[in-house]
Amino acid sequence: MSETKNDYSSLTRQAYIQIKDQIVSGYLKQGQVISISAMAKQLGISRTPITYACQKLEHDKFLTIVPKQGVIINTVTITDAKEIYELRAAIESYSASRSYNNLSSADIDYLEESFEKQLKAVEKNDIHTFMVEDNQFHKYILSKYENSQFSSVINTLYDRAFLLGLQSCQNPARLKQCIQEHRDIIDALKEDNRGKFLESLEKNILNGYTSLTTSYTF
Question: Could you read off the pLDDT of 129-148 as tens digits, one per residue?
């Protein structure tokens, strides 16, 4: 039976998610060259959906398609990192300022639970799990301001920043600092200190970039 347009659409989404996850997790390394055929074989998906998925991933700046070679997994440059962190800081700070008055005790409880999960991950030196929870922590705050365009943009930024965060948090000092910054964000909410909350949130994001520039080889 031949594949229909709907089949291709579904398989393209599946391929996009799986390839992106392999890039974000570091399974596919920055600078690595891989053929469309090899990806199709590995994922068990035909070449056409893989090609469509790679076109979208190229648009989202995860890889570059090279005719007759396949794709090259993009390397995040120092300029890329700077722009990613600055855009995150701008969007998250703006969203937080707009939603601050709507944050409730239930929201603080959620962030406390997330913080406890982060602490447990740090105790186990499980940086991957910490970064997953770090993303959830920030996404939750962002979600309190309803702007679907922000959410769409920030999701791609988080995925691209994930690799950067994994590298940055290899430094135990940065990991400890990040935990303290998250503690400050929650404490500011508990104290109903809007200025401290916004300052702590922006500081947490931009310190990730500052730490990265001292530890990452671009």
Answer: 999 999 999 999 999 998 88
Percent of the chain beyond pLDDT 70? Answer: 94
In whole angstroms, what is the distance from residue 23 CA to residue 107 CA? 32
In the predicted structure, residue 218 carries a pLDDT above the cut 80: no
Whether residue 130 contacts residue 175, with contact meaning beta carbons closer than 8 Å, is answered with: yes
Which one-letter amino acid corresponds to residue 90?
Answer: A
Cα 184 to Cα 168, 180, 190, 210: the distances in Å are 20, 6, 10, 18
Say whether 34 sits in a helix, a strand or coil: strand
Residues 6 or more apart in contact with residue 194 via CB below 8 angstroms: 97, 100, 188
Q: Copy the structure tokens of residue 3.
A: 């594949």
Question: Which residues have a Cβ under 8 Å from the Cβ of 55 and sit 6 or more positions away?
Answer: 65
Phi (first) and psi of residue 33, to 5 degrees: -105, 130
Which of the four pLDDT bands, split at 50, 70 and 90, describes residue 7?
A: low
Q: Fill in the amino acid letter for 30.
A: Q
Distances (CA, A) of 87 to 17, 65, 106, 117, 186: 23, 26, 28, 26, 22
